[in-house]
Specification:
The chain has 377 residues and is an alpha+beta fold. The chain has eleven helices and five strands; from the N terminus they run H-H-H-H-H-H-H-H-H-E-H-E-E-H-E-E.
Length: 377
C-alpha cells in the first residue's frame, strides 16, 4: 500500500500530454452536451462547429498562450454576439484554461497586449444582435482584474519554481564539472608522475648499455617511446577534462607521504633532500592533498627538465600557514618555464583555491624554484 502511494506521489504527467488529453476530453464533452443535452437548441449546428476550435486549442496553450487566449475569447464573443450563450460547460472550462495560460505563461508585453485585445473583443459583442451592454461591461472589467491577481500570485510562484529548477540543474552541472576536474587532476598528478619516472629510468638505463646488449637497448627504446606516447595522450585527455577539482571522495596522500615520494624520485635518478620545520600536525585534508601534489609535480618537472641536478624540498609548518619550497640546481630548458603541460597551472590553481601565494621561476645562479604558501586558518 505504501509503495503504491509512494509511486503515485512521484508520478508527474507530462504537461503537454496533460493539455492534449484535456483538450480531447473537452471537445468530446462539448459535442455530447450540444447534441444530447439540448443546451443549444436554438443554434445547435453553430455551437457544434464553434466548440471544437475553442476546446481543441487548449492542446497548444503552453506554446502559444497569447494566440490561444485571444482566439478562444474571440470565438466565444462571436457566438455570444450573434446567437447568445450556448451554456456549454466544456467551452467555459476551455475559456478559463486559455485565460490562465495568458495570465501565467506570457511576458509582460504579450500579457498586456492579449488582455487589451480580449477586453476589446468583449466590448465589441455589445454591437451584435444578442449583445448585452449591462452584462458585458462588468465582465470586461472583472476579467483583467482577476487575470492580474492570478498572474501575481501563481505566476510569481511558477517563476520561483523555474528558478529553483535552474539552480538544481546548475548544481548538477557543477558537480559533473568538479568530478571531471578531480579525475583530470589525479590522472595528471598520479599516473603521469609514475609514467614519467618509468620513461626517465628506461632512457637512463638505455644510455649506459654497451653495443653488445642491443636487444635490451631496443626493448628499453620501445618502453621509452611508448611511455612518451602515453604521456602525450594523457595530456590530451587532461585537456579535455581540465578544470579545478573539488574535494576528493577517496583517501588521498598527504604530507606524511612525502618521504615515500622523495624515495621514489631518488630511485628514478634525481637526488632529493627533504627538510621539515615547525610543529608537524594534522591539517585539513584539502591542504594536505594540495601540498603533496605541489611537491610531486615540482619534483616531476625537475626529473623531466633539470638534467643532472639535485633537488631540495623544504616544508615549514607555521602557526597560520604551510610554506613549501622545492628547488633544484639543474640547467633546465625552454619548456621548463611553461610547465610542459598543466603542471605549473595546476599548482597555481591549487594554491589559489585556498587564497595562498604561488611563485615559480628560475634562480639567478641556475636551477628552478617553486614556492607556495597555503593558509591553514
Amino acid at each position: 500500500m505504501r509503495t503504491g502511494l509512494a509511486r503515485l506521489s512521484r508520478f508527474r504527467p507530462d504537461p503537454l500530454t496533460l493539455d492534449r488529453t484535456l483538450a480531447a476530453l473537452l471537445t468530446v464533452g462539448a459535442e455530447l452536451q450540444v447534441w444530447l443535452a439540448g443546451s443549444a437548441d436554438h443554434h445547435r449546428v453553430v455551437a457544434a462547429l464553434v466548440a471544437p476550435p475553442i476546446t481543441a486549442s487548449i492542446a497548444v496553450r503552453r506554446r502559444y498562450p497569447t494566440l490561444v487566449a485571444v482566439g478562444v475569447s474571440a470565438l466565444t464573443a462571436f457566438e455570444l454576439a450573434f446567437w447568445g450563450d450556448p451554456q456549454i460547460v466544456a467551452d467555459a472550462v476551455a475559456d478559463f484554461c486559455a485565460l490562465y495560460a495568458l495570465a501565467v505563461w506570457t511576458p509582460p508585453r504579450r500579457f498586456a497586449l492579449g488582455t487589451a485585445l480580449i477586453v476589446s473583443v468583449d466590448l465589441a459583442t455589445t454591437a451584435g444582435p444578442k449583445g448585452n451592454l449591462h452584462n458585458t461591461v462588468p465582465f470586461a472589467i472583472v476579467t483583467p482584474v482577476v487575470m492580474l491577481l492570478v498572474r501575481r500570485v501563481i505566476g510569481g510562484r511558477e517563476q520561483r519554481a523555474q528558478l529553483a529548477e535552474r539552480e538544481r540543474d546548475l548544481a548538477a552541472r557543477e558537480a559533473v564539472v568538479e568530478e571531471r576536474a578531480r579525475i583530470a587532476r589525479e590522472l595528471h598528478d598520479e599516473i603521469a608522475h609514475n609514467v614519467s619516472m618509468m620513461v626517465i629510468q628506461a632512457g637512463a638505463e638505455r644510455r649506459v648499455l654497451d653495443d653488445a646488449r642491443g636487444s635490451t637497448r631496443e626493448v628499453l627504446e620501445t618502453i621509452e617511446r611508448s611511455g612518451r606516447g602515453a604521456l602525450i595522450e594523457m595530456r590530451r585527455l587532461v585537456g579535455m577534462l581540465r578544470s579545478d577539482p573539488g574535494d576528493p571522495l577517496a583517501p588521498q596522500p598527504g604530507l606524511s607521504d612525502l618521504p615515500m615520494l622523495v624515495t621514489q624520485v631518488r630511485e628514478a635518478g634525481l637526488p632529493v633532500e627533504l627538510t621539515v620545520e615547525g610543529e608537524q600536525r594534522e591539517l585539513p585534508v584539502g591542504i594536505e592533498l594540495s601540498a603533496y601534489r605541489i611537491v610531486q609535480e615540482a619534483l616531476t618537472n625537475a626529473l623531466k627538465h633539470a638534467g643532472d641536478a639535485h633537488a631540495h624540498v623544504h616544508v615549514h609548518y607555521g602557526p597560520e600557514s604551510l610554506e613549501l619550497e622545492i628547488t633544484d640546481d639543474g640547467a633546465g630548458g625552454p619548456v621548463r618555464a611553461s610547465g610542459g603541460g598543466h603542471g605549473l597551472v595546476g599548482m597555481r590553481e591549487r594554491v589559489a583555491l585556498y587564497g595562498g601565494r604561488f611563485q615559480a621561476s628560475r634562480k639567478p645562479g641556475g636551477g628552478f624554484v617553486v614556492r607556495a604558501l597555503l593558509p591553514i586558518r
